[in-house]
Amino acid sequence: NRGGRHVAVKIVKNVDRYCEAARSETQVLEHLNTTDPSSTL
């Protein structure tokens, strides 16, 4: 719980294909965060 909001944590194995997928997911989440500051999505 961060500032009264729920957050999620994802653990990724240290395997190249998993790490690359996690980086992609991070980019998508960061994009959503910047385009939706009120967290409606």
Structural commentary:
- This is Dual specificity protein kinase CLK1-like protein.
- GO terms for molecular function: kinase activity.
- With 41 residues, the protein is an all-alpha fold.
- It has one domain (1-41).
- It has one helix spanning 16-35.
- The two termini are 18 Å apart.
* Strand elements, count: 0
Q: Give the radius of gyration.
A: 12 Å
> Which percent range describes the beta-strand content?
under 5%
Give unreliable regions as ranges: none
Oligomerization category of the chains in this entry: single chain
Number of helices: 1
As for the number of domains, it is 1
> pLDDT average, as an integer?
84
Helix content: 40-55%
Net shape? flat
Secondary-structure class: mainly alpha
Which sequence of SSEs, written as H and E, runs from N to C? H
N-C termini distance: 18 Å
Q: Major beta sheet, specifics?
A: none
